[in-house]
Design goal:
alpha/beta; TIM Barrel; two-stranded antiparallel ribbon; 8 helices; globular
């Protein structure tokens, strides 16, 4: 069974992801800024409403680069502890050095408090992706979210496949960025991955909100036996 993780920037998106059949979400805020740490009340509410849903929480205190100061790392570590205390099942983080390598000491600070960690698309601006992959594996991350260092993952499938082959089962590869019902199955076929990440969103009153129809359509494409109807919004 291939798995869809839906990136949700608000509670309306969480509701739509669940309605569409998604088993796992990445909860964040500010999708227009590529995602920031969510409001804790959103996490608390999502956990209470959907106890069976797997919720991974993005920890990113600001937009911009992924080079964090000591004060920012302290805040991120505190946010990780808060997220886990509120019922998060996993944490999504990524730290880089100014030269574009994985910031191993910074990640170690955060990993001390985290569990079930996804290294996010900060990876896609690393200067040496195969070295970065080894550093991420060495840190003990569970999975790597990546577009294969391309503008969309449909353009980066060769890189994702090469990364998966190098990883050889030591970490999960989670292709994401620009995933649609039209390309999701092909991306998984070309990369050999079994999980995929999408926002499945449309714009409602000027904000990005997940579409339950799109979630269901992607699930139907990657799992032909998926039985849920494509639901009205």
């Amino acid at each position: 069974m291939r798995l869809l993780e839906v990136c949700c920037g608000n509670l309306d998106s969480v509701r739509a992801a669940v309605k569409g059949g998604a088993p796992r979400i990445e909860l964040c805020s500010a999708l227009e800024q590529d995602g920031l740490t969510p409001a804790w009340e959103d996490l608390r509410t999502a956990r209470a409403r959907y106890p069976q849903l797997t919720i991974h929480v993005l920890i990113r205190p600001r937009p911009g680069d992924f080079c964090y100061s000591p004060a920012e790392l302290q805040q991120m570590a505190a946010d990780i502890r808060t997220a886990l205390s509120l019922g998060a099942d996993g944490i999504v983080i990524g730290c880089l050095t100014p030269s574009g390598d994985v910031d191993v000491p910074a990640m170690q600070i955060l990993m001390a408090d985290a569990r079930n960690v996804t290294f996010h698309r900060a990876f896609d601006v690393c200067r040496l992706p195969f070295d970065a992959l080894e550093a991420i594996i060495g840190l003990g991350c569970t999975r790597l979210l990546t577009s294969g260092q391309a503008p969309t993952v449909a353009e980066g499938t060769d890189m994702v496949r090469a990364l998966r082959e190098q990883a050889a089962g030591r970490i999960g590869l989670l292709p994401g960025c620009g995933v649609t019902p039209r390309n999701a199955r092909r991306i998984l076929e070309l990369t050999g991955c079994t999980e995929i990440h999408a926002s499945a969103s449309h714009t409602v009153n000027g904000r990005k909100v997940t579409s339950s129809r799109t979630v269901a359509a992607i699930l139907r494409q990657i799992n032909p036996t998926f039985g849920r109807e494509i639901l009205p919004e």
